[in-house]
Amino acid sequence: MSGRFPHLFSEIAIGNCTIPNRIVSTGHHTYLSDGAPDERLVAYHEARAKGGAGLIVSEIVAVHETAGFSQNLLKASSPEAIPAYARMVKACQAHGTRMFAQLFHPGREVLSAWSGMLPVAWAPSAVPNERFHIMPKPMSAALIRDIVAGFGTTTANLAEAGFDGFEIVASHGYLPAQFLNPRVNLRDDAYGGDFDRRTKFLSDVVAAVRSCAQDRVVGVRISGAEMDSDGLTEAEVVEVCRAIARDVDYLSVVAGTSASLGGSVHIVPPMGLEHGYVAPFAEAIKTACHVPVVVTGRINQPQIAEQLIAGGSADLCGMTRAMICDPAMASKARDDRLDDIRACIGCNQACIGRAHKGLGISCIQYPESGRELKFCEPPGIVRRKRIVVAGGGPAGMKAAAVAAARGHDVTLFERSRQLGGQARIAQTLPGREEFGGIIGNLEREMMLAGVAVVKGTEVNADLIRASEADAVIVATGAKPYIPALEGLSEAHVLTAWDVLEDKAKVGASVVIADWRSDWIALGLAERLAGDGCSVTLCVNAAMVGETLQLYTRNHHVARLHKLGVTIRTHARLFGADGETVYFQDTLSEEPIVLEGIESLVLSLGHKADETLEAELTGLGVELRTIGDCVVPRTAEEAVYEGLVAGWDI
C-alpha cells in the first residue's frame, strides 16, 4: 500500500480473484497480433505488468465467425490457440498482475471494407449505423443461439490458457448493446420487445460464459451512457446493470458509442474532455448495483484515480493510455516518484490514431510502446562521445535524453529562452492546453539522464569547433511556409505563429487558409471565434482536420460548429487584394472570392530549417538530422527519430 495513495494501492477482491491494486489496463485493440498473441503482444502487456498494473484486460477476442471487425483480430474458437494465450497470461501473472480476457462481437459496428470488400454485418434488426454507413442483416434466432454458444466456447479455451477472468463487451454500441437498445432492436420475439426480452441476449451470454469460466471472474463492460440521441441513456443503462448485477462479479463503465461520429468521440476521449468525466455514470451504477465497478475515461494521473476511488465513484480505475505513455506509471506512483511519471496528454495521435490505420499501437511521447522487442535494452556504448544536440523541441529533447541515458556526454542547445519548439505554441490553442505536457515530460527525461541544457544559444560551426564535439544531432525544426502568391503583400497577412504568439493584431473579419488540414487551423479558428471574430476556415482538403485522428477531429469540429465558424472545403489559396481573398475550388477550379476580410491567416504548413545542417556539412563531425528539419511532419515522427538517433549514435 502507498501512503500517498491508500485507496489506489489497496487490494480488492473481485469474485474469487484478488487484484493487488486498483489500476487497470482496460481492453484496447493494439493491432500487434493477428489471430493469436505473438511475441510483440506478449512483450507489450508484460511491460505494463512489470510496471505495476494490478489488472490487465487483454484486447478483444472475437467469439464467432460473424464477429469480423477489422484486421489483426484475436480469436480463440479453437483449442489450438491455447498455448499462445497461455504464454501471454503467464508472462503477466509472473509479475503479480491479474489478467482477464475480453470477449467481443461487434454486431453492426464493423469497419467498412476492412477485408477489402464490404462486409455482411449482423445485428438484432436491419437498423443502419451512422458512422460506417452499414445496413446490417437481422440475425435469426438460430444464429443468436450459435453466437451465445461461441461466447462459451471461447471462454472455455481461454480458461484453459489460465486467464483469471472474463469481460463481456456490451459497451460502445456493440452487439449486446444493440440488443439492449429499443431504438436499434426492433424484434418481436424472444430477443426483442419489452425490457426482459431485450436483455435476454446479454443474460444468455453471461450464463454461457459463467458455465465455461471454471469458477473464474465474469464481468461486463458497458457504456454508462452512449452520448448519442439514438443511444442508450444513463437511466436505461442503470436499469440493465441492475438486472444483470446478481449474475456478474463486476461492471466496467465507459461512455459513448461506435454508431455515430459524436458518440464515438468517447471511445478514446481526446484532451478537450475533462479528466474523469465518466465518473458520474460509474457512481450511478455502483450505487444501484453494489458490485465492484471499474471506471475509464481520461484518468491519466494517480491523483485523479485516488480521488475517484476515495470519493466512492468507482472501485478501480482504467488508466490505459496512462500506461501506454508510461508503462511504469503504477510503480512510480507506488514509490512516490510522481515527478517521474510521463503523463498522457490525450492527443490520440499514436495510440488510437495508429490503430485506426491498422498499425501497431504506440505513443508520441514514448515510441518504445508497442515496440518493446525492438527497444528492450539500450545498446551499450563502445566509447563515450561528446554530443551536441541543436534544438530543444520534442525531437532534440528525446535524442538528448536517450543518448545521455546510454552514457554519452550530452549538451542540448536551444536558441530561444524556452524549450518545446512547436509544442510550446501548440499548447496555446483552446482544447490543446495539455499538449504542453510533452515538454515537461521530455525535460524530466533529460534531467534524469544527466543532459546539460543551455538556452538562449544558437548552435553554429564555431560553437561546434569550440566544444570539440564528436557528434551533432541537428533538430532545428521548421518555420511557417509562406508561398509567393499574388497580392499577399497588399493584404493584412499573418502566419498562424504570429497569431498564436500574439505578435500581431487580428481584424474582426478573418479568413484562415489551411493547407495542412491539421490541428493548427482548427485551434486557430476556435480561438479567434471565441475572441469574437467572424471566422471563415478555408481548407484545402475534403474535410477540416482531415489529417487528424477522427475522434480528435470530430470533437474539435463540433466546437467550431457551436461557435458559428464558416467552413469551406476544397479551397486552394490563390491570392489576395486589399480586403479580398481569392481561393480556387480544387475540384471544379472555379473561383471562390471572399470580400470584406480584414485579416488573412496562413496555416499552410512548414518549411524545414536546413541552415545549420548546411553549415556543418563537411566539418568533419558525425552529423545526424531529425524531426522537422529533415522534412516537416508531426511530433510522433520527431520523437521517434529522436529515440532512434539517441539509440544508435
Ordered list of secondary-structure elements with their pairings:
Blueprint: E1 12-14, E2 17-19, E3 23-25, H1 39-50, E4 55-62, E5 74-75, H2 82-93, E6 98-104, E7 122-123, E8 137-138, H3 141-160, E9 165-169, H4 175-180, H5 195-198, H6 200-212, E10 217-223, H7 234-244, E11 250-254, H8 261-264, H9 279-289, E12 293-296, H10 302-310, E13 316-318, H11 320-325, H12 329-334, H13 352-355, E14 386-390, H14 394-405, E15 409-414, H15 422-426, H16 437-449, E16 452-455, H17 461-467, E17 471-474, E18 478-480, E19 493-495, H18 496-500, E20 509-514, H19 519-530, E21 534-539, H20 550-563, E22 566-568, E23 571-577, E24 580-585, E25 591-594, E26 599-603, E27 606-608, H21 611-616, E28 622-625, H22 635-648
Parallel strand pairs: 3-4, 3-13, 4-5, 4-6, 6-9, 7-8, 9-10, 10-11, 11-12, 12-13, 14-15, 14-17, 15-16, 17-28, 19-26, 20-21, 20-26, 21-22
Antiparallel strand pairs: 1-2, 18-27, 23-24, 24-25
Helix pairs in contact: 1-2, 3-6, 7-9, 14-16, 14-22, 19-20
Low-confidence stretches: none
Looking at the structure, what is the overall shape?
A: globular
Give the name of the CATH architecture of the largest domain: Alpha-Beta Barrel
What integer value in Å does the Rg equal?
Answer: 26 Å
Q: What is the number of beta strands? A: 28
Can you say what the CATH homologous superfamily of the largest domain is? Aldolase class I
Helical content band: 25-40%
**CATH top level of the largest domain?**
Alpha Beta
- Structural class of the secondary structure composition? alpha/beta
